[in-house]
Amino acid sequence: MIRASFFALTLTALSATANAGLISLSLGDYDSGSVGPYPKPEVTIGTFNYDLAGQDIVSATLSGTYGSEIVPSSTAGFDLFGDGLLVAQCIYQDPGCWVSGDNFRPWSFDFSDFFVLSDGALEISVIQTSGSTIRLGSIELNIVTADIPVPAPLALIGLGLAGLGITRRGKTR
Questions:
Q1: Burial (Cβ within 10 Å: 0-12, 13-18, ≥19) of residue 124
Q2: Based on the number of CB atoms within 10 Å of its own CB, is 147 exposed (0-12), middle (13-18) or buried (19 or more)?
C-alpha cells in the first residue's frame, strides 16, 4: 500500500501542468517613403512589449500585409526586421508584393528560435530598397506560451528522500 502511494505521488510530482496562453499584439499601418539613393538607412517602425514571466514560448508568428489602408495594392521594395532578424521583404518589381497587385497580400514569419523574443520586446525596423512608398498593413505578433515546469531534479531529490524515509520506516517495523 505504501509503495503504491509512493508511486502515485511520484507520477503526480513529475507530471507538469502546461497552461497555454496567448500574447497577441499589433502595430498600426506603416506608410513612408522617400527619393533615392537606395537602400535608405534603417528606420524603426515600432516595438512590441510583452511579459513572459513564468512562461516558456511554445510558438511565435509575426505577420502582416503588403499594402496599407492608404494604398492596399502596392509597396516599395523593403527589408523588414525584428530585432535585426530578417522577417519579410519585398524585392523590386516582385509580383507578390510590388505595385498593382491584389489588395493586402499577406506575409508571415514563424520563429524557429525564440531567443530574439526572450527579453520581452521585439523592435520592428525597415530598410527601403527601392523607390516609391513603403506600405505595410498592421503588423501582428502572436506568441503561444506555456507555464515553466517545476525543475525536475529538485522534485526527484525530494522524492528520493521521501522514498528513503518510507523504506527505513518499513524496515524498523
A1: buried
A2: middle
Q: What is the DSSP letter of 140?
A: E
Any idea what DSSP says for residue 116?
Answer: G
CA–CA distance, 171 with 101 (Å, rounded to integer): 81
CB 107 within 8 A of CB 75: no
Say if residues 66 and 90 touch (Cβ distance below 8 Å).
yes
If one looks up domain 18-148 in CATH, what number appears?
A: 2.60.120
* Domain residue extents for the chain: 1-16+149-173, 18-148
Q: pTM for this structure?
A: 0.75
Label residue 169 by pLDDT band (50, 70, 90): low
pLDDT tens, position by position, 83-115: 999 999 999 888 888 766 678 889 999 999 999
